[in-house]
Amino acid sequence: MRNLPKSILFLSLLLVTQFSKAQEDVNLLINDMLLIAENFAEPGAEGATLQSSAGWFSSASTLEKWQVEVSVHGNALFVPSSQQDKIINNNQFNNLTIVGANNALLPTVYGGDTDAAYEGSIFGQDFEFDAIDGLDKSVVLHAFPQVTVGLPYMTEIAVRYLPEIFINDVGISTYGVGLKHNFSQYIYKRLREDDFQFALVANYSNFKADYKFTPIDIQIANLDRIDVDANMYNVQLIGSKLYDTFEVMGGFGYTNSKFDYAFGGTGGSLPTLNNQLGALGNSEGKFKGNIGFNYYVDKFKFSTVFSASGLFNANVGLHYRLN
User: Fold this and answer.
1) Which segment of the chain is annotated as a signal peptide (predicted)?
2) Model's pTM, two decimal places?
3) What is the rounded distance in angstroms from the CA atom of residue 176 to the CA atom of residue 283?
4) Which of 32, 91, 238, 258 is the most core-located residue (most Cβ within 10 A)?
């Protein structure tokens, strides 16, 4: 009986040690999955930032007060090979290793298929799963409608909204609001249409993407998708000059983006995984340059705007003035 308290104490310490070791193993595996998610989704979030900030306003001139313009825009994001694949090494992981190799060139969301696989062990059980395949896209197309209204004081407000649609098993949705104020009115005593004009633009955009992939079973969770929620704030100065029915436009601005990632799936450790994944969400600022051209025919306008900020995007729009 005298040894009973010692036995209980020893057993308690053993259980605490085993629990701590098990929790440490879970945390190490979670950190590995965070690395996989970030490498896969980060280029997609960067592309979403550029596309969501594109095409808000293609001219520094403004609509008449309460004039309404409806437009349909299409984006084409050009993805370089450096953004389609990333090299990952075993020494970057805590628990996982690449099957049969020390490193591998793995696809991002824009990359193609891969034969690479990971293996690991947790709670004494070995497991293995395939690396996530990309969408195999060097050009990413994205369309959306927009409505612009002329306000007093040579100001415009624009609103865009696209409910969730699915392209290649990827759910995409976006919405946003933008403002433009013409500053040429303070320089010219009598502003004419063919005068050089410049304006300040500010806009907010939200972009959500749901990337589904072949389910991954890592014992502590079963994962089947990565969700990206991107919030973008953009400020830029634009200038334009009208030559009869043809207009040239240029602009330079700054975009600040906040990305949040989350895994979808099931499992007791999924909330912990997503809490730590949420901590990876960071703000990123980038400068952006634009150049564009407009062509006017009666109440119609055809616009083309090229944007560069790490990646390259082309935006085309068809606009119609209702009144």
Assistant:
1) 1-22
2) 0.82
3) 18
4) 238
Could you tell me the two tokens for 225?
Answer: 């998708």
* Residues found in the chain: 323
CATH number of the domain enclosing 197? 2.40.160.20
- Token readout for 205 is 């955009």
Cβ-Cβ contacts under 8 Å for 244 (sequence gap 6 or more): none
pLDDT in tens, 234-260: 999 999 999 989 999 999 999 988 888
| Residue 111 domain flag | no
Domain count, the chain: 1
132 located within any domain: no
CB atoms within 10 A of CB 306: 15
Q: How many CB atoms lie within 10 A of CB 261?
A: 21
CB environment 93-111: b (16+ within 10 A), e (fewer): bebbbbeeeeebebbbbbb
CB crowding 236-251: b at 16 or more within 10 Å, else e: bebbbbbeeeebebbb
Flag whether 257 is in a domain.
yes
Q: What is the pLDDT of residues 43-70, one digit of tens each?
A: 888 888 888 888 899 999 999 999 999 9
* Number of other residues whose CB lies within 10 A of the CB of residue 51: 26
Q: CA 239 to CA 250: how far, in whole Å?
A: 6
Domain range for residue 25? 4-79+137-321
